[in-house]
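Re: the request from the purification team.
They wanted to know what the chain is likely to look like in 3D before they choose a buffer screen. I agreed to run a prediction and write the result into the notebook, where they can find it.
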Amino acid sequence: FYRNGPNPVFKPKNLYHPFDGDGMVHAVYIRDGKASYRNSYIHTAALQHELAEHKAVWPGVMGPFDYSLPDFPIKDTGNTDVILFNGQLLPTWYNAGVPYSMNPLTLENTGVFDLKGRSRRNMSAHSHVDWNTGELRFMDYGDEAPFMTYGVANPDGTLRQEIEIDIPGPRLPHDLGFTTNYTILHDLPFFHDINVLRNHNMRVLKFHRDIPARFGIIPRYGQSNDIRWFDCEPCFILHVSNCWEEGEWVVMDGCRSVNPMPNATNEDGALSHMLAYMRLEANNYRWRFNLDTGKTTEEHIDERYLEFGTINQHYAGVKSRYLYSTTTEPGWFLFNGIVKHDLDTGDSSNLYLGDNRYGGEAPFAAKVGAQSEDDGYLISFVTDLNQNRSECIIVDAKNIEAGPVCTIVLPHQISSGTHATWASHEEIAEYR
């Protein structure tokens, strides 16, 4: 079980944002009835530079951006997601930074992940491995044209293709979706004014309620002119849960926010707006796109505040029945429980982690010889503020209300984190 997240090494230069910390991957290895734990900083170029200087050099996401610095005008921390691809553990950064590579067994840093055949280096945080083919689907975006690219990597770590996607200007797409035959790209009306960034070195986001959310559906190996755009109600999406095809329809489930920049509650300027943004007012939602008629439909799956939806990844890109989401405590980036949705029946069940206990994304680990889609476990880190300790909990996915079937107390308390993944014995066996 791997989880990424921010851990600042040096006191920040400017106003600190919780997403600014240097990336650290935590891992729990379960083998022969025993568990072991280790962690490692991600040796990003920025961190190595700052270690040499013995101080913070880059500003964080609150800015001001400093274009005199190498690589990126704010700190590329690699602290957002972590996936396993072609035998490598790849931590990534949510501002489309440089992906790095780590040994999945030792967490040894092995340098920048360069996709053979690719001229660009940067990659969005949420690139996805299709477990059915071993391919990696990814995108890149930025403030200069082309504002978005989309690509596919072969299972052996070589580039199959990368193409430019025509969008009106700089955007901040966070995720993409995929089915067996298609990829769904996002052009969302929550973005910054490039002139403000250029003139004031600050990225000021605005939710444009008069601009529709656009979803571009492109064949897996399609070219730029193959993409078809579908307009939907204005929204912002951090995370896609799953997508699949139903005849001429493409279906996408994800976490939708229609208020991605809530009003600030006090007069503390930038800090107040940052805290408001962290309220995570999103809920599980479904979009359907008809490839024959161009029609779209939208509907709620659950109107509670939910995020970080996970599924059994063996069903990624095809219709899945079960969805596992984190519940959020209003007002902050704190996950206090897990909800299991049965998407066929509409039923749901809940696991509350307890007062002052906060977890995170809970990836699914299938049992050996699993007999059904939910025959497996959910795994997550939990920090218990009552006992000042952190735990790795393992929950039976068939019965999450029963609570953990196993709790592994970590050797020290760790900070809250971002995304996580599970890798089976077979996927990392070559490193044993």
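For the purification team: The helical segments are 45-53, 194-200, 270-277, 425-428.
Please add any questions underneath this entry.
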